[in-house]
Amino acid sequence: GENTEMVGEVWQIGDVKVTRVVEIEATGGMSRIIPDAKRELVREIEWLYPHFSDEEGRMRGAIHALIVDTPDRNIVVDTCIGNDKERAVPAWNNLQTSFLSDIAEAGYSRESIDNVMCTHLHVDHVGWNTMLVDGKWVPTFENARYLYGETEFEHWRGEGEGDYGPLLADSIMPVFDAGLVDLVQQDQQICPEIRLVPTPGHTPGHVSVMIESKGESALITGDFLHHPCQFAHPEWSSSPDVDRPQAIATRRAIYEKLAGSPTLVIGTHFATPTAGHLVKDGDTYRLDV
């Protein structure tokens, strides 16, 4: 894809264009998400270097939104952390990024977005659902229907705020209260080219997003894995996974389907170059970029 500074890669899947808009990209910090991924073990996975780890075995990761531009609609998949949010993670607290102007620079005004699709309702996937205007949280994408998984939404509404800060109050409920949310099923067809794929385990209603157009396909992972090291080690759990055995089973099942297929895998937290093709690698897998 073509690269400008913050508007990252662009991929074409048939008639669908996918544009990556980066909020944060960094080296380090992933090890708290995947505790099994010790540096010396990451170093053994040679294909991770240089894109996904440094020579010491420190993992690179990213938080980005993906704008999926189909013939009849523009969909933002996952909305990062957001600005002005009170968050328990210091690196995420009260962010002041140029995210909205970066989206505009990629060719998409806030008003041009028709759907916002959250793969799940964790803190770093819902942030730009809203923005602060005159002390109030208002829907960022005012012309959009926001798609929340029904299972996912009911789960988090029941759980309450959790450890990261008041994300239900500042990022999830304001758009629901504004009447902009459609609750969707885990295998929902969103439009002719876009359907959801159930990938539970990380959260109860977690989904991935399948794009299919003109014989080409791509899968936006969401968080059924966080880093490409989990292709080599599907058994390495992500610490936020609510059901680890289920998450491991999901990884194995999806990898089996993707390996050797022409489907482009677009990682929701993968550092640049973010996308590649899954191939069998002995009795496990690697990502070809």
Topology overview:
Layout: E1 7-13, E2 16-27, H1 39-44, E3 60-69, E4 74-77, H2 99-105, E5 115-117, E6 130-133, E7 136-139, E8 145-149, H3 150-159, H4 167-177, E9 181-184, E10 189-191, E11 194-198, E12 207-213, E13 216-220, H5 229-232, H6 244-258, E14 264-266, E15 275-281, E16 284-288
Parallel strand pairs: 4-5, 5-8, 8-9, 13-14
Antiparallel strand pairs: 1-2, 2-3, 3-4, 6-7, 10-11, 11-12, 12-13, 14-15, 15-16
List its salient traits:
16 strands, alpha+beta, seven-stranded mixed sheet, disordered N terminus, 289 residues, 30% strand
Description:
The chain has helices at residues 39-44, 99-105, 150-159, 167-177, 229-232, 244-258, and strands at residues 7-13, 16-27, 60-69, 74-77, 115-117, 130-133, 136-139, 145-149, 181-184, 189-191, 194-198, 207-213, 216-220, 264-266, 275-281, 284-288. Helices cover 18% and strands 30% of the residues. It is an alpha+beta fold and 289 residues long. It has 6 helices and 16 strands. Strands 1-2-3-4-5-8-9 form a 7-stranded mixed β-sheet. Strands 10-11-12-13-14-15-16 form a 7-stranded mixed β-sheet. A two-stranded antiparallel ribbon has the order 6-7. The longest helix has 15 residues, at 244-258.
